[in-house]
Amino acid sequence: MATTRQIINDMRAQACALDGRHLSGMMTDGVVRSLRRGADEIERLEAELFYHRAAAEIPKDDAA
Questions:
Q1: Count of domains in the chain?
Q2: Which of 26, 56, 58, 62 has the most CB atoms within 10 Å of its CB?
């Protein structure tokens, strides 16, 4: 199974490959935009998940 980072990199690579190209006579601008936005969102979620995992490992102070 691909890692999150591999998926993000694949999406960005596909976006770069399709940027400014025609596919069956149609521009791929919408596909490129969607791939980049999807990669951005996965990256954002990955960072948020990292934050939550790190916060869960911080010991709670029971003396309060």
A1: 1
A2: 26
